[in-house]
Amino acid sequence: MSKASRRFNRTLVLSVLSLAVLIWAAIRSFDISPEDMLTFLVGVMWVVAGVILLAGLCAALWVTLRRLFSGGGS
User: Fold this and answer.
1) Rounded CA gap, 72 and 13, in Å?
2) For residue 64, how many other CB atoms are within 10 A of its CB?
3) Do residues 73 and 67 lie in contact, with contact meaning Cβ atoms separated by under 8 Å?
């Protein structure tokens, strides 16, 4: 395994663990129910998916318009 691959995997594991600790701390410190945290997490995932979809549509529109106005074709 290359050094870059190990660093990537380490960063990925640490980020997932820090997210888990953040969620645990919010539930424990602020008395947020796990059901509310799950609802919030699902809502955030929907928003992130929507932003990704919107960015993809904007990129596709940009590429289409650039091809249309640059001489129209390959």
Assistant:
1) 46
2) 10
3) yes
